[in-house]
Design goal:
The chain is an alpha+beta fold. It contains six helices and five strands.
């Protein structure tokens, strides 16, 4: 029997999901979470660097998605300094780094589609 079908629901913390795909999509689904993780894949970044690299995302959306990724344990946020101007740096956690092979597969698939070879 597959893990995702081992019981009626899969639990993660205080949440229950109908399958493991649903659990994974709750963590990384949506338009921007995976893009944020991609931009943090190789190095830590400040908020302004992320915003610059993701020019079409609104500041509110970027901020909310970073908070959610931090809450879910995929991204860490480190604040340097105590009074403005402070420096805030975002990076992948060890748990977030486990998503890198998936990011690499998504990147490869996207490149194939962009080049016109869908197969």
């Amino acid at each position: 029997m597959k893990v995702e079908c081992a019981s009626d629901y899969v639990k993660n913390g205080d949440k229950s999901y109908p399958c493991t795909v649903s659990l994974a999509m709750d963590l990384v689904g949506g338009k921007w979470k995976t893009v944020i993780l991609y931009h943090l894949k190789d190095s830590s970044k400040r908020y302004s660097q992320l915003k610059k690299e993701m020019a079409t995302v609104t500041e509110m959306t970027l901020s909310l998605q970073l908070k959610q990724l931090e809450k879910d344990g995929l991204v860490s946020r480190v604040v340097y300094g105590e009074k403005p101007p402070i420096k805030v740096v975002y990076s992948l956690t060890d748990f977030g780094s486990t998503f890198i092979p998936v990011l690499d597969a998504i990147l490869k698939w996207g490149n194939q589609i962009a080049s016109g070879s869908k197969f």
